[in-house]
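Recall from the previous chapter that SMILES is a line notation for molecules. Here it describes zinc ion.
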Amino acid sequence: MNDSIEAETLGTSAAGALLGGAAGALWGAPRLGAAAGAVHGWMAGRRRVYERNRRGAAAFLLDHTWALPTTIASTVTLTVSEWRRRVGGVDPGFVDSLSRRSNRFVFRRGLVLRRGFALTVGTVVTGAGGADGEITERREQLVTRHEDVHVWQARLLGPLYPILYASWFIGGVLVAVAQRVTRPTNTALSDEIDRYAYYRNPFEWHAYTCDDNWPPPFTDAHGVWSKRFPLREWIPPMFRESSENRVGRR
Ligand SMILES: [Zn+2]
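With both inputs in hand, we obtain:
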């Protein structure tokens, strides 16, 4: 580690601890907030994750205050993958080119909910390499244009994001099951659940639209929202560094 990384790591862990502690105090958990903020800040500094501009500063500030609950979940994910790497010898494959100065941590492998799909928890994207662990051009675009949108959704909506996402998901499952009971069809129940809980979920609709991937491939276009999500620019102008709202950084 050279001096500049050490200075950055020291700075981000101290700032993370202070901000996390202050935000945690409002939730009645100052120690948890400070500890998660320190660990998350330390890992972010070591990996040089945050951009050194207004958008990076806004991302850091939001992640360690308003979005502290999802950042705590990110910290658990990062700690588990670090522990598995050091103790179990299982390398999650940190992707420096998609993480450094990109305001997110990207891993080739790690936790996924279904094969081939990446998963974003707060600032952490796992399974970016897909089923074979390869970062192809398409997988790279999935990270910069779809998963990155989830990172910002969580950052901007803070504690509301996991509640809203999970509520929609549960509601979607209930609607799919209720439809199955009242109007039996030949479609598999899992496809119906996918349609209502996942593809019609506004957060997914938004992310697929930003990835120019709506309607998603392999779905029945009549079973999902017919139009693209109306909002394309999701980072508020005050945090934006360029007019085209660029994501990703080589
Ligand atoms: Zn998604």
